[in-house]
UniProtKB/TrEMBL annotation:
Catalytic activity of the protein: Hydrolysis of proteins in presence of ATP
GO molecular function annotation: ATP binding; ATP hydrolysis activity; ATP-dependent peptidase activity; serine-type endopeptidase activity
Membrane-spanning ranges: none
Pfam families in the record: AAA (PF00004)
InterPro entries the UniProt entry points to: AAA+_ATPase, ATPase_AAA_core, ClpA/B, Lon_Prtase, P-loop_NTPase
Designated name of the protein: endopeptidase La
Length: 212
């Protein structure tokens, strides 16, 4: 995890020092449950940006990205503009979750639409079909996540700086459970810490059989 933190800091430092928004976007790749979303949230908090998450799993229609034209029944703007509206600012951090699970369907390629969103030469005038007006996305910090890099389409992968993350060791899982997960659950359920104690050996068994 220290290597991941170092690469993230290097990426943000280069972006800051060069004052550039034309570079690649970060993509955290690894199995589920290893903290990809948590890292993205921490980056947003440290930069003072609002955080928005867009789940891309199973999307097959480019209108989910670009929006529907108003002539369609129940038309609405796409997920990018919805996220911008919810963020209430023009420079949020938007997490594109599970970018490897985009699929091309009968109604265009969502990957091609997303490529336009991420292209610094085009995203300063991104046009959502519902709004039918150019919208500037150049101040948005996009970060992607993926479980399987081999399933990301080539042109989309070329726009990304991949940071591969491995699962936690058993000892790391135990530390996370003791320092964060258990205290959080006790607080949420109104249980006094003195009334519930989980032995380290029990946590070790759970950690060895968990998938992340």
């Amino acid at each position: 995890m220290e290597d991941v933190k170092k690469r993230v800091l290097e990426f943000l430092a280069v972006r800051k020092l060069s004052n550039s928004i034309t570079g690649p976007i970060l993509c955290f790749a690894g199995p589920p449950g290893i903290g990809k979303t948590s890292i993205a949230k921490a980056i947003a908090q440290s930069l003072g940006r609002n955080f928005e998450r867009i789940s891309l799993g199973g999307i097959r229609d480019e209108s989910d990205i670009r929006g529907h034209r108003r002539t369609y029944v129940a038309a609405m703007c796409g997920r990018i503009i919805q996220a911008m509206k919810h963020a209430g600012s023009n420079n949020p951090l938007i997490l594109l979750d599970e970018v490897d699970k985009l699929f091309s369907g009968l109604h265009g390629s969502p990957s091609a639409a997303l490529l336009e969103v991420l292209d610094p030469e085009q995203n300063n005038s991104f046009t959502d079909h519902y709004l039918n007006l150019p919208f500037d996305l150049s101040n948005v910090l996009f970060i992607a996540t993926a479980n399987d890099l081999s399933k990301i389409e080539g042109p989309l992968a070329d726009r990304m700086e991949i940071i591969e993350m491995t699962g936690y060791s058993t000892n790391e899982k135990i530390e996370i459970a003791e320092r964060h997960l258990i205290p959080r659950q006790l607080l949420q359920h109104g249980i006094c810490p003195d009334h519930l104690r989980i032995q380290t050996d029990a946590l070790r068994v759970m950690g060895e059989f968990s998938y992340f």
